Amino acid sequence: MAEGISLAEQGAIAKEFLVGLLASMSITADVTVSELDEETVELAVNANPPTELGILVGPRGMTLQALQEVTRTVVQAKSPGRTDRILVDVAQYRERRVAALGRFAQKVAQEVVETNEERALEPMSAADRKAIHDSLGDLDTVVTRSEGEEPRRFVVIAPA
Question: Which domains can be identified in the chain, with CATH numbers?
């Protein structure tokens, strides 16, 4: 846990911010707070139907990534010390994105094994790169590495 305010208090500040933001956008949604581990809190924004939440996700999750950064900044501004990890998810986007990236990575890994040639993927966010690395980490047929400089950093999948 960070020095200063507790993880639960950080989650409460983040929730208050998100609820206010949603209200100002006239979006009706629920915000739930979950402590994932000792240093990570996740705020999940959900609505039924989730159709109006797309604006919070944006193309390829870019708006969601910005929303998470703004939420983290709000919590940091109200915390006298360091803050813990604060994640924001909208309509289970992150979960679906990780699953889709995992399927894609498995397919590319199979092609790499069949051709015995490494393959560089398109530049992606740190979270997406982590999803690729994690999904292939247990395979002994391929290895992954990140290359390049932000914001054009990418994953390379190579034969083991």
Answer: 7-91 (3.30.300.20), 97-159 (3.30.1370.50)
